[in-house]
Design a protein that fits this description.
Hypothetical upf0131 protein ytfp; three-stranded antiparallel beta sheet; 8 strands
Length: 130
C-alpha cells in the first residue's frame, strides 16, 4: 500500500459543500476534470453517482486531494452505500481514485442523469434538484 492517495472528489465533500468537513484535514491539490468518459447521475439528490462509459461520456469537474492512509480510510468509512473506489482518468493524463457508483443500480432505480451540468456543484446550484 502507498503512503498517500490522490483522490478525485466531485460531490458533497467539495469545498463549499455540506460534507467538506469529512476531508477538511486532507491536502487540497488542485481543481481537475476527468477525461470525457463518464456519466453523472443524482442519487436521490444526496450525492453523485458516476460510472465509466465507452461512448457518450462527459468530463466531470472536481477537486484532487492527497490523503494519508488514515484519511483515506476515514473517507471510505463515511461513504454512502454502493459507492466503491476505482481509478479514474484525469484530463491531461494521470489518474486518481474516485468513488464510482454501480451503473446497474443507477439504471434500475432510474436516477436522474445530470451529466449535462458537468459537475455536481453546477447541478446543485441550478435549482432543478429536489
Amino acid at each position: 500500500m502507498s503512503d498517500s492517495y490522490l483522490v478525485f472528489i466531485c460531490g458533497s465533500a467539495l469545498r463549499g459543500q455540506p460534507d467538506h468537513h469529512a476531508i477538511a484535514e486532507t491536502k487540497f491539490v488542485k481543481e481537475v476534470t476527468t477525461e470525457p468518459r463518464y456519466r453523472l447521475h443524482s442519487v436521490e439528490d444526496k450525492h453523485p453517482g458516476i460510472y465509466e462509459v465507452t461512448e457518450g461520456g462527459i468530463s466531470i469537474a472536481g477537486e484532487l486531494y492527497e490523503m494519508t492512509q488514515a484519511q483515506y480510510d476515514h473517507l471510505l468509512a463515511q461513504e454512502p452505500p454502493h459507492l466503491y473506489p476505482s481509478p479514474i482518468a484525469l484530463e491531461g493524463g494521470g489518474e486518481a481514485i474516485a468513488m464510482l457508483y454501480p451503473r446497474e443500480i443507477i439504471e434500475e432505480r432510474n436516477y436522474r442523469d445530470v451529466s449535462s451540468y458537468g459537475s455536481w456543484t453546477a447541478y446543485k446550484n441550478s435549482g432543478k434538484n429536489g
